[in-house]
Task: structure prediction
Amino acid sequence: MCLSTACGRYEKEKHGSVLEAARFELSEESKLHRGRWIQLTPAGHPGVMEAKWAATRFTPFLVIDPVDDPNPKDQDEEEFIFQDRLPAKLVEQKAYEGSMHLPTMQTVFMALKYLRDHEYL
Result:
């Protein structure tokens, strides 16, 4: 088991956009919705490569001030997810310790940079 941010896969037949996929995952995995959504890559970016041996890419988002979702989407059957809220400093420490998979670590580092650059931290 490892720490992770809400994450999932964009599926053309299921989602209207990458942002919609991210919103679905936040509801499903974190039981949150709304908030201010920030795409952490530039507009038009093809997505961050997950690994050199894979063609998959991901688009990281940061959500500021989400609220509890009164009707969250169902989790996938194979997922066991425990939600917790951690201070930014501990999240960063866990990323540096390697307690997260690579896409989550990348998202954490990009989100922390955004939050620092915009004086949230």
Q: What stands out?
A: The helical segments are 18-30, 88-97, 102-117. Residues 102-117 form the longest helix (16 residues). The two ends are 28 Å apart (CA to CA).
